[in-house]
Amino acid sequence: MLEEIKHVQATADLLHSEQQVEAAIDNMAQEINIALADRNPLLLCVLNGGIPTFGKLLTRLTMPLTIDSINASRYQNQTSGGSIEWLLKPETPLKGRTVLIIDDILDEGITLQAIYHYCRGQGAAAVYSAVLVDKILDHEKPLTADFVGLHVENRYLFGYGMDYKGYLRNAPGIFACKE
Ligand SMILES: O=P(O)(O)OC[C@H]1O[C@H](OP(=O)(O)OP(=O)(O)O)[C@H](O)[C@@H]1O
Ligand SMILES: Nc1nc2[nH]cnc2c(=O)[nH]1
C-alpha cells in the first residue's frame, strides 16, 4: 500500500500551491467574517477531510462562535462514492442556531446536501456551507456552497484534508492524481 501511495504522490500534478490555498482560506475567512458577524454561528467540522480547512478558518474568524463535528462519509477511503454512512452526529443542539458546515470538497454535492438536510431537520435557523474546493462538473449539483476557496477541475484530488485511500491528507497543496 505505501508503495502505491508514494507512486501516486510522485506522479501527481500540483494544481494549487500551499501559498495559493492559504490565500484562498484568507479570502473565505474575510467573507465569513462579514456575512456571519452577528450570528453567533455554530461551526460544524465535517470529519475527516474538513479538519485542515476547519482549523485554518477557525483562527481567522473573529465573531463569537462555538464548534462541533459531524462525520457523514460516502467514499470510505475509496476514490468513488457510495451511500452515506453517518459515523458521528453533533452533540450541540442545532435548534435555532446559525450553522456553518465546513468541508474540504464539494464534488457531486451528495454529502453536503445530506448534512444540510440533517441540520434543517434538527431545527437550525439558518445553514451555511464553506468548502475549500468546489469541483467543476459538467452538470448541476443539488446545492451550491455559500463560501468557496477554489474552483478546481474534475480530477481525483488529494491534499489539505483530501485523501487518496486514506493517505495524503497532509499534502501541502491541492494535487490531482494522474489518470
Ligand atoms: O460531494 P460529494 O461527492 O458527496 O463528496 C464530497 C465528500 O467526499 C469526501 O468525504 P469522504 O466521504 O471521502 O470522507 P472523508 O472526509 O473522511 O474523506 C469529502 O470530505 C466530502 O465530504
Ligand atoms: N480526496 C478526495 N475526496 C473526494 N470526495 C469527492 N471528490 C473527491 C476528490 O476528488 N478527492
TrEMBL record:
GO biological process, one term: GMP salvage
Superkingdom: Bacteria
The entry's keywords: Glycosyltransferase, Transferase
Keyword Glycosyltransferase on entry: yes
Any GO CC annotation of this UniProt entry: cytosol
EC number from the UniProt entry: 2.4.2.8
InterPro entries, alphabetized: HGPRT, PRTase-like, PRTase_dom
The UniProt record lists the keyword Glycosyltransferase: yes
Broad class of enzyme this protein falls into: transferase
Phosphoribosyltransferase domain span: 15-164
Pfam families according to UniProt: Pribosyltran (PF00156)
Catalytic activity field: GMP + diphosphate = guanine + 5-phospho-alpha-D-ribose 1-diphosphate; IMP + diphosphate = hypoxanthine + 5-phospho-alpha-D-ribose 1-diphosphate
One example GO MF annotation: hypoxanthine phosphoribosyltransferase activity
NCBIfam families linked to this entry: PRK09162.1
Protein name from the UniProt record: Hypoxanthine-guanine phosphoribosyltransferase
Organism expressing this protein natively: Candidatus Methylobacter titanis
